[in-house]
């Protein structure tokens, strides 16, 4: 089966500012796919070229299916009522829509409210409802949960997952690493005008390397209380924390434990954390922006 989206050699300049310098990626049918990148990397430009909202200089874009686009907030007239907006969009798309469009997204009771009376989260849902009017196969979401509180974000994530279960392909741009990690099947990182990485989050972790942070909680019985106070965690009384970074976890742990044993230091806890998606993203973005 063909991919939902195929982008090859996409170039886009704004005047003499080359933003996209040969962007290549594909999105599989039925996946939730995130386009990540630093501010100004070109995520919105890429999405707008794909959506047909922006001209590009060269490259090919193949979209296999009907598309739906979640517009940015503040893009509707202030006094339009939610249900009027739904009917208007349905009319433009030569289809019909009833209140279930809104109630299925949990905003049925808002159908008579004017746009300016809606909260940010309610506006986002209304825009999602409008994007769904054509019953799209491929849904584009640009920063779908920016500015939403935790509850609204979780609820919107649930709705996005439900859309995936219905077989839709979802392509989103996001800055929220937690969102990307929990929601997306695959990610692409846009940096230096090209796709610097494409794959799953575990594949990114693998590619960036095994960088670990080791936190050791130690007790140093020889120290006085005033000495402890000068340390990082005075509230812990006789305990403190020491942190280390390592690419070779076994080697570092062995040498640390040997050292502590020699010193007679009592260890009360050891924690090992892998680098976060955020750190890995920053590393890739930095390397490719040089
Ligand atoms: N209409 C435009 N005219 C000129 N330059 C533009 C235009 N739109 C975007 N740019 C520039 O193109 C670059 C990419 O912008 P774009 O909005 O695509 O990035 P982005 O990755 O979506 O950023 P953000 O995360 O900040 O939303 C930026 O340097 C921006 O200033």
TrEMBL record:
<dbReference type="InterPro" id="IPR027417">
    <property type="entry name" value="P-loop_NTPase"/>
</dbReference>
<dbReference type="GO" id="GO:0005524">
    <property type="term" value="F:ATP binding"/>
</dbReference>
<keyword id="KW-0813">Transport</keyword>
<dbReference type="Pfam" id="PF00005">
    <property type="entry name" value="ABC_tran"/>
</dbReference>
<dbReference type="InterPro" id="IPR050763">
    <property type="entry name" value="ABC_transporter_ATP-binding"/>
</dbReference>
<feature type="domain" description="ABC transporter">
    <location>
        <begin position="5"/>
        <end position="217"/>
    </location>
</feature>
<keyword id="KW-0547">Nucleotide-binding</keyword>
<dbReference type="InterPro" id="IPR003439">
    <property type="entry name" value="ABC_transporter-like_ATP-bd"/>
</dbReference>
<keyword id="KW-0067">ATP-binding</keyword>
<protein>
    <submittedName>
        <fullName>ABC transporter ATP-binding protein</fullName>
    </submittedName>
</protein>
<comment type="similarity">
    <text>Belongs to the ABC transporter superfamily.</text>
</comment>
<dbReference type="InterPro" id="IPR003593">
    <property type="entry name" value="AAA+_ATPase"/>
</dbReference>
